[in-house]
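FORM 7B: Structural annotation worksheet

SECTION A. Query
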Amino acid sequence: MPLKTATIIGATGLIGGQLVNQLQQDEQFGTIRVLVRRPTTFSQSKVEEKLVNFRDPESFKLALEGSDVVFCAVGTTQKKVQGDKDAYRKVDYDIPVHAARFCAETGCQKFLLVSAVGANRKSGNFYLRLKGEVEDAVQQFDIKSVSIFRPSILLGKRTEKRTGEKIGQVVMKLFSFLLLGSLKKYKPVKANAIAAAMIRESKKEGKGRFVYEFPF
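SECTION B. Predicted structure
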């Protein structure tokens, strides 16, 4: 059986980094293609780095060609975009939706997206509404399998400092025992567990649209 090519968008993030590390150890994947804006320091032997201008459709689409699976774990923060909602949308909406469109156009069979618990296009919260809009959009393209993962607060060591998230991790850890039944999905979840679940899902032969919440 030919080895698969996995493409990761958002490889420098918490979940993306876990995807790189776990795919490196997976014998079913021969190439890990990471799409990045600027050079990185990935040293894994399977990693193939592609510098991409995500606002250039031709550059973006060309980088996705030949992918068997595309993992999209891209995301920004209000701090990075200095509160500019249009700039936020260009990352958290435009990149995933364009990626899904180009997957369909280049024949990629599987698209896996990291969203967020509570995502809903009708939400009054900007972040959750945006995530819901992304979810709706990516499911419309002609891709054999689209899988959406909705984690709550992520646990794991980031290379960047996110003070608000760190506080949230501590608070949620203290009170997570209260989250029972339908509230379980709001418990903090380890980034490596999400990455592992995404890789497992990418190997399934199913066709359709799938949404996963904690616990996976």
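SECTION C. Observations
The radius of gyration is 17 Å. The first helix runs from residue 14 to 24.

SECTION D. Sign-off
Analyst initials: ____
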